[in-house]
């Protein structure tokens, strides 16, 4: 941690020194840049190509480039926020698939229960009045 603070202070002091020199002697010649001799002239890796791509030029002068970028953002938004492909949706789907048999059983149990209730109330209806005819009985 102290070495980081020391390096940060060194870089800040170097920047302030350079800004002061430029401020007080604006007509001084620009010092030659320090080029690293082993730096490759062409990008060899995908990261270098991506970094060295002329983004501003493409954005300004190639409308199809903007179209691709905006389309990619829209597709990403649909995948991220609209489609149900989040982990919780997968959990919900698997639970639904596991429990579907039980729901089917509950459905048929409900139908059988209603039939049995109907037969029971035809036989033992506490609300039936004496001599009343059941409309469904033939």
How would you characterize this protein structure?
The protein has helices at 2-24, 46-52, 55-61, 63-82, 87-123. Among the domains are: 44-83, no CATH class; 84-123. The longest helix is centred in the C-terminal third of the chain and has 37 residues, at 87-123. Helix content is 68%, strand content 0%. The model has no long low-confidence stretch (mean pLDDT 84). The N and C termini lie far apart (95 Å). The protein is an all-alpha fold and 138 residues long.
In short:
The chain crosses the membrane at residues 61-83. The chain is mainly α and 138 residues long.
How would you describe this structure in keywords?
mainly alpha, transmembrane, single chain
Average pLDDT confidence is: 84
What is the rounded distance between the termini? 95 Å
Could you estimate the helical fraction of the residues in percent? Answer: 55-70%
Largest sheet: none
**Quaternary organisation of the protein chains:** single chain
Unreliable stretches (pLDDT < 50, length at least 5) are: none
**Continuous helix count:** 5
Protein name: ATP synthase F0 subunit 8
Transmembrane segments: 61-83
Keywords: Membrane, Transmembrane, Transmembrane helix
Organism: Gnathostoma spinigerum
Give the topology:
Layout: H1 2-24, H2 46-52, H3 55-61, H4 63-82, H5 87-123
């Amino acid at each position: 941690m102290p070495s980081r603070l020391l390096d940060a202070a060194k870089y800040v002091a170097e920047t302030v020194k350079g800004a002061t020199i430029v401020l007080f002697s604006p007509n001084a010649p620009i010092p030659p840049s320090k080029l690293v001799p082993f730096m490759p002239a062409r990008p060899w890796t995908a990261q270098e190509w991506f970094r060295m791509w002329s983004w501003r030029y493409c954005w300004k002068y190639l409308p199809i480039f903007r179209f691709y970028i905006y389309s990619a953002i829209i597709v990403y938004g649909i995948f991220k926020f609209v489609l149900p492909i989040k982990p919780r949706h997968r959990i919900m789907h698997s639970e639904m698939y596991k429990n579907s048999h039980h729901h089917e059983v509950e459905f048929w149990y409900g139908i059988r229960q209603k039939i049995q209730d109907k037969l029971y109330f035809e036989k033992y209806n506490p609300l039936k009045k004496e001599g009343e005819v059941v409309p469904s009985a033939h």
